[in-house]
Amino acid sequence: MTEGTMQLAVVCASVRDGRLGPTISEWFVDHAKQRDDLQVDHIDLADHPLPYQISENPSPEDAHALEKITPRLERADSFVLVTPEYNHSFPASLKHLIDWHGTQWRAKPVGLVSYGGIAGGLRAVEQLRPVLGELHAVALRETVSFPIVWNKFDESGQPVDRTDAVAAADKMIEHLLWWGHALREARRTPPTW
Known about the structure:
Layout: E1 6-12, H1 21-32, E2 38-44, H2 60-67, H3 70-75, E3 78-84, H4 92-100, E4 109-115, H5 122-134, E5 138-146, H6 162-186
Parallel strand pairs: 1-2, 1-3, 3-4, 4-5
């Protein structure tokens, strides 16, 4: 990875059976990988069940589970969280990831890709913003949203309205890169947290 290349971790937040998250996160990952200035790591939370109880001294089994995901979050210069909207908020699996990894988000930009019913997951996005702010992460204003998601992707996993989806993704990636470079430089001389 060169100095100009940003490490982007894309997190698929849903772990439910029958979920659409992988379709959406895989589309975003494939789109982001077309760029030369991003190195993309796809993290599917369904593949990384985290221990339920958060502990300062996790058991050996819990420590092993964390070893599979913590270094990947630590390496990231920026994040994209692909989240559904469940009951006007984001899934517990994502909150659990955030809570286990409080310092890994610090001074890093976070893009949000949401999906759901009529609101397109935007209520989940609005619930995430103060949580991320509390961890000193920068939640981008630019989002990618898929309302009435069950009609938005074809059988091959591509957006039906590719033009709008790609335009929104490209704008968010542009802002991720700008913030990512600025904050990577700023992390070299951090304030007292």
